[in-house]
């Protein structure tokens, strides 16, 4: 099925009405994970609430999986996967590299998705017509770079500290093979792969709501998104996105050691 850009804009606008007034407002932050720090804010909860309401009104038979309000009807062939603020740590730090992620799976495959960054006024989305961008500089079709060599690639990861044990050793060797490595930016780094500014993102331990919306955006722009082992990314896990199939294969081999 196809999802209209008008509906994606409605989702983005509804979420922005909840997130933007609370951004850089020094609001309360709760911790979801005892013994660690997994922040959640009122903006997270309220943005997901309005997104779910719009989906339920438009597609009442569809299922929904959200980070903050759980799952409903996920036995449906059509399931929406929501991260109202991907990058809550950036959000509470006042950095505009967080985003609202909404993706649609059909029979488990990600077929449409959007990433909205309302502070910068950017919308990255993919539907049956391809991968597209709206924002500063005007609308355009998204296309990945044609990089095929690790030596010419720009790599992002949230932080190398997420790689544990031998995986950290392999990551460090991998990073030394690329031209430029940078850290942070969560979903924004994946969007930059689709936009042709970043070549590789390697992030371990992602949840479905961290990646489902981004898969069709990157794939329809010409990139590849899988687990580190080459499996489907829709269920989350250790996720590798790359600008070209050749670069993806090289990065996967490097991460395997």
Automatic annotation (TrEMBL):
<dbReference type="Pfam" id="PF00459">
    <property type="entry name" value="Inositol_P"/>
</dbReference>
<dbReference type="InterPro" id="IPR020583">
    <property type="entry name" value="Inositol_monoP_metal-BS"/>
</dbReference>
<keyword id="KW-0368">Histidine biosynthesis</keyword>
<comment type="pathway">
    <text>Amino-acid biosynthesis; L-histidine biosynthesis; L-histidine from 5-phospho-alpha-D-ribose 1-diphosphate: step 8/9.</text>
</comment>
<keyword id="KW-0378">Hydrolase</keyword>
<comment type="similarity">
    <text>Belongs to the inositol monophosphatase superfamily.</text>
</comment>
<keyword id="KW-0028">Amino-acid biosynthesis</keyword>
<protein>
    <recommendedName>
        <fullName>Histidinol-phosphatase</fullName>
        <ecNumber>3.1.3.15</ecNumber>
    </recommendedName>
</protein>
<keyword id="KW-0479">Metal-binding</keyword>
<dbReference type="GO" id="GO:0004401">
    <property type="term" value="F:histidinol-phosphatase activity"/>
</dbReference>
<dbReference type="InterPro" id="IPR011809">
    <property type="entry name" value="His_9_proposed"/>
</dbReference>
<keyword id="KW-0460">Magnesium</keyword>
<dbReference type="InterPro" id="IPR000760">
    <property type="entry name" value="Inositol_monophosphatase-like"/>
</dbReference>
């Amino acid at each position: 099925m196809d999802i209209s850009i008008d509906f994606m804009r409605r989702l983005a606008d509804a979420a922005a009405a909840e997130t933007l007034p609370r951004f850089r407002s020094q609001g309360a932050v709760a911790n979801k994970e005892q013994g660690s720090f997994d922040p959640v804010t009122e903006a997270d909860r309220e943005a997901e609430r309005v997104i779910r309401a719009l989906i339920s009104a438009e597609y009442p038979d569809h299922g929904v999986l959200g980070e903050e309000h759980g799952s409903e009807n996920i036995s449906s062939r059509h399931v929406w996967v929501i991260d109202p603020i991907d990058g809550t740590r950036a959000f509470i730090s006042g950095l505009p590299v967080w985003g609202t992620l909404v993706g649609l799976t059909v029979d488990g495959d990600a077929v449409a998705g959007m990433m909205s960054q309302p502070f910068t006024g950017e919308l990255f989305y993919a539907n049956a017509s391809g991968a597209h961008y709206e924002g500063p500089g005007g609308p355009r079709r998204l296309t990945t770079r044609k990089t095929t060599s690790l030596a010419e690639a720009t790599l992002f990861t949230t932080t190398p500290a997420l790689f544990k044990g031998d995986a950290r050793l392999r990551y460090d060797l991998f990073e030394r093979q690329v031209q430029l490595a940078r850290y942070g930016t969560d979903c924004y780094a994946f969007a930059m792969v689709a936009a042709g500014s970043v070549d590789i993102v390697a992030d371990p331990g992602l949840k479905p709501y961290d990646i489902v919306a981004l898969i069709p955006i990157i794939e329809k722009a010409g990139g590849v998104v899988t687990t580190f082992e080459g499996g489907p990314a829709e269920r989350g896990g250790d996720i590798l996105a790359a600008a070209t199939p050749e670069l993806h294969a090289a990065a996967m081999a490097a991460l395997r050691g």
